[in-house]
């Protein structure tokens, strides 16, 4: 049922805000997920991911702002099951119904033939358990069945809330291949997670939120690049070396607990040269590679709950809003 026109669309969110009584769950959020790629929507528990996805899918009304699929609000899409596949909550399954039976019910509801139900079971690796009752399924199998349900209409856009939840490493690897090939075909994939490491191998772009607000949007590689590795320096006088570096305008140096000085943005040779001219001996250096999970925690540091704040503001789009991944550094 794939046509030559199968192509994802931009998912765009402009100034999206949701206030529940005194809690601002999502605060003036703007981002875009482009077609032909997988975008990771990341943030700690309670950051506002699910609330955002629910607004994007028209399940709850925003306090302010808009969410569109190819410039059209989701609720205005004529045939949504063929345009957007979504998995938000864990799938409610009739425990006595078989996997195939479940899919046939949904296939009938959206007007696709039963043959498609068998096809998607194959796609998600459940063909062998087609006639098993869903009540006997593990969490990972239920996740696969939920995904099969979402792709029944062969939608070019996928929105998945924590799809890796409950999957073992093999399941995560399978999901990665599935989503990457979806994007390679031209689809738009947006997946949420509260663990960057879980989706690091899957996503091209990341949108990171904390307390309902955007803290980073851009290519994952740019995030890595902006948080480049640092060099750990053991020196006769780490404080003296730090001062010598500051005198040269290099402020990205700080002490680590073991007494070494962590310096970013300079080569080993450049550090040696600054140390020499300050009369400081360098005993040794070691490269400390960037740990993306650490970067993620820093960006979202201390965030465990949505903020309590004044009444909702009226949305006005940020100047120069960019329709695609940015190459910016964390703000
Ligand atoms: N219906 C609601 N009524 C009141 N507060 C809500 C409601 N839904 C969500 N919230 C609050 O909004 C904030 C964001 O919740 P949300 O579920 O969107 O976060 P999340 O990033 O998806 O977190 P998790 O990964 O834990 O699901 C939380 O403080 C939550 O308690």
Tell me about this structure.
- The protein is an alpha/beta fold and 331 residues long.
- The chain folds into two domains: 220 residues, Rossmann fold (3-Layer(aba) Sandwich); 62 residues, Alpha-Beta Plaits (2-Layer Sandwich), CATH 3.30.70.
- Helix content is 31%, strand content 25%.
- The chain contains eleven helices and 15 strands.
- A six-stranded mixed β-sheet has the order 6-7-8-3-9-10, with helices on both faces.
- α3 crosses α4.
- The longest helix has 16 residues.
- It is elongated and about 80 Å long.
- The chain starts with 10 loop residues before the first strand and ends in a 23-residue tail after the last strand.
- The C terminus is likely disordered.
- Adenosine-5'-triphosphate binds next to β2 and α1.
Low-confidence segments: 304-331
Give me the strand/helix succession: EEEHEEHEHHHEHEHEEHEHEEHEHE
Approximate shape: elongated
> Architecture of the largest domain in CATH?
3-Layer(aba) Sandwich
Proportion of beta-strand residues: 25-35%
In total, the number of domains comes to 2
* Mean of residue pLDDT values: 86
Question: How many E-type strands?
Answer: 15
Name the hetero compounds present. adenosine-5'-triphosphate
C-alpha-based Rg, rounded: 24 Å
How can the largest sheet be summarized? 6 strands, mixed
Question: What gap, in angstroms, lies between the N and C termini?
Answer: 43 Å
Give the helix proportion (percent range): 25-40%
Might you state the CATH topology name of the largest domain? Rossmann fold
Output the strand order for the largest sheet.
6-7-8-3-9-10
The H-level CATH homologous superfamily of the largest domain, spelled out, is P-loop containing nucleotide triphosphate hydrolases
Instruction: Please state the structural category.
Output: alpha/beta
CATH class descriptor name of the largest domain: Alpha Beta
Count of helical stretches: 11
